[in-house]
Structure formats: C-alpha cells, structure tokens
Specification:
619 residues; alpha+beta; Serine Threonine Protein Phosphatase 5, Tetratricopeptide repeat; Alpha-Beta Plaits; 3 domains; six-stranded mixed β-sheet; 23 helices; 69% helix; globular
Length: 619
Amino acid sequence: MIKTVYIFSFGLFFMLQSSVLIAAAGSDEKKQLALYFAKLKADVNLGHSLQTMGYLTELRALAISQNAKEIEIESYFIEAMIKRRYGAYADGVKLNHYALELAKSVGNEEYIAMAYYHLAHLELELERYTLALEYIQYPIDFFINKNAERAALMFLWQSKIYLTMGSYYQALKANKDALQIITPSMDIHLDLAVNLAEIELKLGNTKAAKAALGLVNLKNLDGSKERLKLQYYLALANSHLQTGELKQAIEIAQIQLKNPTSLRFLDEQAQLQYLIAVGYRQLGEHKLAYKYLKRYSLSYDALSLQRRNNKVLQLESHYKFDLQNQKLELLGKDNTLKEQRLAQQQQAFANHRLQQQRWVLGTILFLSIVGFVYWRWQNQRYLVVLKQRVIERTQELAKSNERLKAMSFTDSLTELHNRHYFFSVINDLLIDFNSSPVNTEHQGLIFALIDIDKFKNINDTFGHNVGDQVLEQFSNILRQQIRSEDLLIRWGGEEFLLAIKDASYSEAEQIIETLRFEVASHVFTLNNDESLKVTCSTGFASYPLLATHPHLYSWEQIIELADGGLYLAKENQRDAWVGIKAGNSILHQQSKDVVKNYRVHLVQHTLHASTNIERTLNY
C-alpha cells in the first residue's frame, strides 16, 4: 500500500504542476520537452514508472538546455523512485539530494517540501524511523494551509511511519488529521480509509475497522491501485477473522492468493497465507493450517532475505562513500601540511640571508637551491606514487562494484539471472518491438513460464537438498537447449522465465516442445545414487500480442497471459505446454479485460490456444 500511495502522490503532483512547468521551456526543444513531459505524466499516473527510464535521460538533457529547473527536479524524483524500488538505495539517496539542492538553489519551497517527502519515504524503507519522521514534518508544515489534498497525503505518510513503528494511537491521530481536511470525493480518501482500517485492526477495534472499510468504493480502485485493492481485501479478511467469521476470512484470502496480481506483492501474499493458516488452525483443520503456514514461512524468508540484501548493499555503499571521503580529507590535510612546511623553510632561508655575510650568504643560497630542487624532485616522485595508488584503489572499487552488481543479478543456486537482472534489461529487449509494427511470423519476443511439475512432492518426499539438485540439473537442461541470444531467468522457486528473441509463434512451439521432451527424457541423479524422473509444464505468449498495435498490451500483461497458459497446462495434464495468442476477432480496446478474463476469451475465440495435449482443453 505504501507504493500505491507513493505512485498516487506523483500523479497528483504532476497534474497540479504541468501547466507551470511547460511554460518554462522554449521553441522546438520546448515542443519536444512538452511531449516527453506529457508522456511522463501518463506513465506515472498509470503506474508504468519503469517505462520512463527509456527516455528520462533525454528529457533531463532537454530540461537542462531549456533551463527548466522544475522538470529537471521531477526527473530526479522519478529516477530515485525507480532506483529505490529495485534496491539501489545509495543511488536513490544521491538523486533525492540532487533534487533537494536544486530546489533550494532556485528557491522553490514547494519542491523543497516534495524532496523531503521523498527522502522520508526512502528512510522508512531503510527502517530509520526517527529520520523519516523529521523529514515528513517539513512538507506537513508547508502544505497544511496551502493544499488540503497534498497535506492529507503527508499526514497519511506520517501515519504509516507511526504504524510501522507500532505507535498505533499516534498513527490513528495522524490519519484522522488527514480525514478532517479532505472531502470524500478526493482520491486519497480511499488510501486513508484502508489505512484507518489497518490501524483499528491493530488496536482490536474490529467494528471501527469494518466501518472504515465500508467507506471504500471498490469501483474507484482501478488498475493503478492493485496493491491498495489487495490491502483492502487483506484488512477485510482480518476483520472477519477477529470477529470469528473464519470461513469468510479464509475464502476472501484464498481468492486474493489466486489473483495473479498478488504474485507481484510478496509482503501482502505472505500476510494472506498466514491469515489462512490461523483461520484453519482455529477451525481445527491442522493439516491445512500447516500447509499454509509452510507457504507463509517460505514467503517470509524470501521477503526477509530481500530486505536484508537491500540493507547490506546500502550500508556497503555508504561505507565505501565515507571511506573515499576520508581518503580525500587525508590527502587535503597532507597537502596543507606540506605547504606549511615549505613556507617555514622559505622563511628560514630569508632569515639566514639577512644574518650571514656575503660568502656565507652565497653558500646558503647555493644549498637552498640544491635543497629546493631535491625537494621538488622528491615531491614529484611522491605525487606520482600517490596518483598511482589512487588509480589502483579506484580500479579496486570499480571491480568490487561490478562483483556486487553481478551478485545482485544472479541466482546463487542455479547461477542463472534473476528478476532484478530481467527488470534491468527488459526495456532494451522491447526497443525493437516498440518502434514499428512487427511481422509476427518472423519477429517476436516469446515469453514462456516453465514450471517443474509436482516439485513440492519432491521436496516433501526426498528433502530440500534433493530439490536443490533437481533445480540445478533442470536449469542446466534448459541452458543447453536454448539459443545464445535467448534470455533464461529463474523467476522464483521452481518457476523459470524464458524470453525467446526473434521467433515466430510456430518456432516457439517447436523450441518449447524440445525443452519438454528433453526434461521428460532426462534421468535426474541424486547424491545417494538414486534416480528420479521429472516433467515440466509451460505457458507462453508472444510480445506484441497484436503486431499492428505493439503498445496495446504491455510486457507485464503478456507474462500474465503466459502464466494463464501455464495454469491450463497444469490443470489439463502436466508434462505439457499451452500457448496463447490473439484470435481473428480480438478487440483492441479490450486489453485489460482480455488479460483478466483470458479463459472467457478462449471460449469465445477472441484468444486462441495451441498445445501438445491431444484431447480438447478444458478452460
């Protein structure tokens, strides 16, 4: 929910400032800057912030050339948000401070307030709550008498910080302060209502929590508020659990876990699994309770590992940054000391010249010249050595940074690339397909989700050590069969994402059938000289879905369709694959509906499924 509020704040900020910012630019570059800025607003409002990285650098260069300081500040805000979202906290801190210093240089109090707001969000994720509260107070004081909706947003963030700290009554007060200064028609009212319900549930006020949830109009929770919608249902399920309505709570939670959207939000997914486990335990269904508790444990461990890795990277970046500053300070002090010593020597030479006779003065002058030349020579040698050491240390730091980057992009078990790497290269993968219409028979980017069948049974029967061996051998099979230009990602657990470049739909079917056959034919050997047969199921779809309208379906939606094909393969047979592509009568304006209700569209033939399953698919 924190990220939902963050994206909402960006959209609100852009809408209120766009007319003022565009007026600051000029001529042809002004028009280009206006087009980029309009696209930036649209992408942020739709929650597609990652897509802005493709043109953010060019937009910032135009803003600098046109002296559009406010747009330049906005570009820092956006880039810092994206860097922070994917764990690059050091870059996020640096970019936010760039924005703050630039806002101070132009004397724009409103942007200064927004810079502190972004810094508060960053410190909250780093769990530095005291500093986050200090930062959020500045925008509260600034907006309280100037802009009610933005002031309410700042109170909401203050409430969330207190809620995370466990200060529930302070969180409740901040939330009520926000509700008092807005009207129910404002978009932020939805976020405040859900946040209020979460606080009341923490305080055990179930009736008040349900009343708060009753203020939420679900029709207003569109696609850009998917996380807020998930938070709403999580709070609703918790309210039923606290009142003893266990079956209703379990049903709500299970529906949300089946929603593909929940896979993107690991924190909420873990809370839903824990809620179901508690519900089943209270119903006496201990076997089911253990099942969901085990799933919760895996999700929580993954979430904890992700947070811990992010913090380690942040601390290491700060440590290296501080270490470099210390070395620079030492070098500066050393140079100052040398200058002081040189001044003292020169003064000593001057005193001797005044006190000694001519013949002594000549000798002293000669020795002084020799000593000065020798000192210059030694100093030059020292500077050369020092410069070489600085170069060596800089190279060592660069190598360390590359190793850290490689570690953050690689799965430690299979040595395949992970999700972080995929998010860093996806824009480059899609650039050829977004620039012009694509010939689907010869050019396309196939997204395939490959999942090991009944992998949980392997872990339960043989243990997780055997499960790891299966994952390693499985990833080696996939790596040997794919082409060098294709991209193989460990998507999570026993699930892998394969991106097949420049392939037609029919070629993709052959490639995936080959993978299925190779896996089914392989004998998986274990450490205890036992053998095991393993199969896999695959779902895939092609980007773009419609060659004439490449921007109509995002790559995220194509992966969701591939996930739908994987579900169909699992449900109908296993050891199978199902591909989904556009039918002849698909409507361009139905993109969201097509992805969400793909089974209905398969029945209606607006989508078409291909498979190696010989019998008719059951949708």
